[in-house]
Amino acid sequence: MFSSLSTFIRNVLTIFWKDLRVWLRQPSTVAATIVPPLAFLLVEALGAAAVGRSPVALVVQDTGVKGAQMAQIIHNADVFRITDANAQQARVLINNLDVVAIITIPPGFTRRVDAHEPATIDVTVNNLNLDFTNDIRRSVPDAITQFYQAQGSASPIKVTMNEQDLRSQDVSLLQFSVLPTIGLLLMIGGLITGGLATAREWEAQTIKELLLSPATSGAIIVGKVLAGFLTTFTLGLLVFLLADLLGWTRPQGVYWLTTLLIIALVSLFSSGLGVAIGALLRRIQPVIAISINVALYLFFLAGGIAVLAFEPLWLQNIAAFIPLTYGNHALQMAVFYASADQLGRDITVLSLSALSALALGILSMRRGLVR
User: Fold this and answer.
1) How would residue 147 be classed by pLDDT, with cut points 50, 70 and 90?
2) Domain of 310?
3) Which residue of 48, 94, 355, 361 shows the fewest CB atoms closer than 10 Å?
4) Are residues 359 and 220 in the same domain?
């Protein structure tokens, strides 16, 4: 029995090393795995830069203390990209679409505030985009509220602000986008690596050599899944570590282990699914095309570009059946919030999904080998 087990392990490692060497000699395969997620990350970075803070021209025509204080509050609001300008310069900026709005603190603002008279702040908005427009409509009144709070007991309007955050830290839009993108990388990596390693055997007709070798079908299948899992896990881990060095992801303490476990489970799921697709299609080009499309659909359906809880109900219902949904949730909880919220559910779903994908891969591969 020990001899049979030893032979099985040796055959598995032989298949594993063969597929790994082939993968390393195929830079196009590595590129097909990495390029789509990096392209998505670039698009998300550009989007975050565009919508994270609204570009605004600030015109301060009041020379008093209250005008300066109001201007400083607008500068510190952390929701605007401020360009200080005079009225003429501001008009040029908005006409050239360099800013989305002009905020003007008019002359006499300080005098009116001190006299408890109505003191206006003029806002000119180019409402070409409702997202930008609504940001301005919400942010300017918020800055005015902060201004009145800063007056303390001297304020004619008594305002007390007490913010209570549900999370321990703020997460930028780009940071929030990184983890689903890593999930996309894991899906594409496992699907393409496992799929190509399997389909290549039929396309190159080396499947005959495998069938004539002493290796059992079980050893062949396990070796291919193991190769796909290791390459996918390694790529995902390297990208995650790079994101950590850049300050985008910072898990703490035991949550490093949680993060590694989730990356491993998603890698195993995608590798098993990749072997199944490769055994079913048996051609390299269809495997690449279908693998990328499957990964992208799973990415979007799992809420990869937004907060899933705020998406339409029909999408939330679909996402409940997508394993990547639970991987994204577990990574967000571990990386951003040092939380184990619903971790048991997420690990259970991912584990069952990985086992199901492995079973599907084994079944597809066995049928292919028998034929």
Assistant:
1) confident
2) 2-47+169-370
3) 355
4) yes
d(CA 183, CA 257): 17
Q: How many domains does the chain have?
A: 2
pLDDT tens track for 199-252 = 887 777 776 666 666 666 667 777 778 888 888 898 888 889 888 888 888 888
45-75 b/e with 16+ CB inside 10 Å = b?
Answer: eeebeeeebbbbbbbbebebebbebbbebbe
Determine if the pTM surpasses 0.85: no
CA 360/CA 365 separation, integer angstroms: 8
| 289 found inside a domain | yes
Residue 3 CA: distances (Å) to CA of 10, 56, 84: 10, 74, 79
Say how far apart CA 69 and CA 80 lie, in whole Å.
16
Contact 172, 79 (CB under 8 A): no
Does residue 364 share a domain with residue 240? yes
Spatial distance between the Cα atoms of 212 and 234, rounded to a whole number of angstroms: 32
CATH number at 80 reads 3.40.1710.10
